[in-house]
Write the structure tokens for this entry.
Amino acid sequence: MALADLTDVRRTKALQDRAENKALTKLTLGPSPWARAGALAALVVLAGIWLVPIVWGAVTSFKHEAEAALPASLLPTMGWTLEAYEKVLGNSDLLLWMWNNLVVAVLVTSLTVLISAMAAFAFSQTLFKGRGLMQWLTLASIMMPGQILIVPLFKQMQVMGLVDTFAGIVLPQIVAPVMVFILKRFFDAIPQELLDAARIDGAGSWRLFWTIVVPLSKSILVAVAIFVFIGAWNNFLWPFIITTDPQFMTLPVGLSTVKDAYGVQYAQNMASAMIAALPLLILFMLFQRRIVQGVATTGMGGQ
Amino acid sequence: MTVSNASVTPLAGRAAPDRRTSASRPGTRTKTSEDSLRSRDKSGYLFVAPFAVATGLFLVVPTIYGLWMSFTNQSLTGTGSEFIGFANYAEAFSDPQVWQTLGNTVWFTILSTIPLVLVALVMAVLVHTGLPGQWVWRMSFFAPYLLTSAVVWHLSNWMFQPDIGLLDTWIKGLGLQPLGWLTDENVAMFSIAGVTVWWTVGFNFLLYLAALQGIPAQQYEAATIDGAGGWRRLFSITLPQLRPITGVILVLQLLASLKVFDQIYLLTMGGPNGSTRPILEYIYDTGFTNYRLGYASAISYVFFALILVFTLVRLLPTKKEA
């Protein structure tokens, strides 16, 4: 699609949204201007409270270190500076941790989506002996919270020689039985005639999966991928347990060690926090609609 | 994809916020004769194999291994792995630390869950009015959820700093006595619950928002014709329609809150004086600081029993759907 078309589509969509929102206001609040003013005021106050910590952290990150240690002023009085960012990027492993985190999150996301979709396809569209039992086991494993397993899993990883490796960080995170059921439910709803027709034409299961099921399920696959990616990018507990070598630390783990390294250098702490926060925040600003939808659909655990 | 709405349960219908995902609704396809053409070759095994192997290795094996370890005196250093029967469990039930950390966990769960559901509900109902600035509201409420716990720790630790933090500065500005946000035993858990609400409420907010979008406009139109005002519509249409989803969000939230670790470990390390230490941190300390893997596994399973109760509650409505 040409860029001009794309902006056109966006503009039409925006106009549509505005009309829908206006209608919604009328439906929920009625015509009273007081109701509107009250609701708007409540929104402004809540949003203000929710933004303060992030905004204040951002402002602090542009202060001189000497000023950051003084009683809080919302705006810098000694002038803005990039000092904290220069120091943080120069002295710490922040960029390495961010790279590690990207590698881990991408691996976790792609592997989780791939193996979950394949298993969902097997449960939904193929017949094999023991299918019922396997589905039941998968359902039961949803009940096992990963946090309970940290102790035996660590010992097991030690035996397998996977402590302080990417495999050790990634592999235990790719088991997501909930996602299998979310995807299975979606695959169940694919019109059977479509699949039957392809089978009559001689398509095997592998081709069926890639040429019919996957393209038809793009929206749910993206939703699951978004959800898994956010979780993997931000995951703290498991990477924290399985890594001791700073070379393999992910961003959340590395960042949690930062305080000791800098002492009480608040501007630098805030600068690190801002750099760490930025990638997902930017993604969210760009793809808000998709992400909101992905998290909402997947977050319910397919219920 | 045309999918009939007839057999959709209200809950499932509302979980899908967008028409494009409506096909994820369960039970909408009538299965004819166990699908004559479903591939009967062995491909099913191949498709399920990677997931089955991963689940076996990283979920089933550690589950069984942990259970076995809980009956031994295994340590992290590798010495000793004798079978000692129920000794670990007996110790756990008489260990005051287990009861204290379990109590802290439940206290945190209560303190965080109630506002996490209520504030999310208020936010979603307000945003669902369609007032201008939709993008900004969603961004503000959901953005903290996208931060990793270490970032949340840096930001809130900075807010809570004595004297130079924003909270103390403002409170002093009002002429009040500042609190020991993270240093006072009676305050620390409230501070942590507050941080948690700020951090994760956006997730529940999105779930509520999706549910609100599923309420048919006709209901509001009918209410308008009947002359119902804004408040009346809120209490007679919006809130009753949200009852089923509230149950789901509540249980999901209880499960999430019980597993609290990150923010407490980073903000207070369980202090002051153990007043905020959750059970998961006690498990971590027992296993990785004191090297007592066997005992840590036993506590894990005691905790698991507690979580299982809530999980089963969560699965009940799913069963009814099928």
Notes: Chain B has 14 helices and no strands. The two ends of chain B are 21 Å apart (CA to CA). Confidence is low (pLDDT under 50) at residues 1-34 of chain B.
